[in-house]
Design a protein that fits this description.
Blueprint: E1 3-7, E2 10-11, E3 18-25, E4 33-39, E5 46-52, E6 57-60, E7 68-73, E8 78-83, E9 92-99, H1 105-110, E10 116-119, E11 123-126
Parallel strand pairs: 2-11
Antiparallel strand pairs: 1-3, 3-8, 4-5, 4-9, 5-6, 7-8, 9-10, 9-11
Length: 127
């Protein structure tokens, strides 16, 4: 079955950078969507970035465009989130997530929480 394990969170000053990693395993299908979500205390979990594995197309929330980069290393079965120019409002628990079946780029782009079936345990980012 699908497993997702995040790492790389921590504390950083405003303007700094962090790279999150998510080790993935157990996929028996292709052309699916992987994403990063975050949740600040008292707030809803929101989609930050996503990648459609069928072609590598990436999608970003407006709040992180130009600062965050999502990428995937297929040889290492690892998903990354490079976060630059971090702001205090980026603070939260960051989760790696995957949709549970083959999907389309259009669905991936919407980054709707309810479309993601598998979740990691989360890693804390504090700015």
């Amino acid at each position: 079955h699908v497993q997702l394990v995040e790492s790389g969170g921590g504390s950083v000053q405003a303007g700094g950078s962090l790279r999150l990693s998510c080790a993935t395993s157990g996929f028996s299908y292709s052309d699916y969507c992987l994403g990063w979500f975050r949740q600040a205390p008292g707030k809803e979990r929101e989609g930050v970035a996503a990648i459609w594995t069928g072609g590598g197309t990436t999608y970003y929330a407006d709040s992180v465009k130009g600062r965050f980069t999502i990428s995937q290393d297929n040889s290492k079965n690892t998903l990354y989130l490079q976060m630059n120019s971090l702001k205090p409002e980026d603070t939260g628990m960051y989760y790696c997530a995957s949709m549970g079946s083959v999907t389309t780029p259009g669905v991936c782009a919407q980054m709707r929480r309810e479309d993601f079936a598998f979740w990691g345990q989360g890693t804390q980012v504090t700015v």
